[in-house]
Amino acid sequence: MRTTTNMHIPYPPVRTEGKNPAYAQLMLSDMGGLTSEMTAVSLYVYNMFITSADVELSAIYHDIAMIEMRHLEIFGKLAFELGADPRLWERQNRAMVYWSPSCTYYPAEPKAMLKNSLRSELSAIEKYERQKCEIKDRFIVDILERILLDERLHADMFKALLAKRP
């Protein structure tokens, strides 16, 4: 059950067709918005800590957190290449709002934790699918498609883990 990424499928090179402020804002949201890679990292690191007695589950959360950090790195590089300052923030109305740990919901009971993790992955999948339709930069779309492979795998893992729990 520890295969937490599609390692046999490499990530495309991080590049864009050029500066694009609108796409840059989407990448910033993917980095540091409410539904973002930073939110996923903080959630999975927390889950790793509190599941330390369950070695398998704690290791899964660790591994997925590392993959989400890779996604965070990719979105940060894309945001910068597209012309944005790659901070952990997103545009909300007319202001830039920084990411905060309050973006993360931290359930401590194992089944609730798994359900929350699944919801997080499904939200990311929905967001990235929507962005694939909005973005016309083929390089970014290729990256989103690759990241979606990981997010779908994570969702499937959480579904399987939930099915094993009473």
Query: How many strand units?
Result: 2
CATH topology: Ferritin
Mean pLDDT score, rounded?
94
Number of domains: 1
What composes the largest sheet? 2 strands, antiparallel
The CATH class label is Mainly Alpha
Q: Please bin the fraction of helical residues.
A: 55-70%
What fraction strand? under 5%
Structural class: mainly alpha
Reading side by side through the largest sheet, how are the strands ordered? 1-2
CATH homology-level superfamily: Ferritin, core subunit, four-helix bundle
Compact summary:
The protein has five helices and two strands, in the order αααββαα. With 166 residues, it is mainly alpha-helical.
Protein architecture, described:
There is one protein chain. The longest helix has 27 residues, at 55-81. A two-stranded antiparallel sheet has the order 1-2. It has helices spanning 21-32, 37-50, 55-81, 110-134, 138-164, and strands spanning 89-92, 95-98. It has five helices and two strands, in the order αααββαα. It has a single domain, classed as Ferritin.
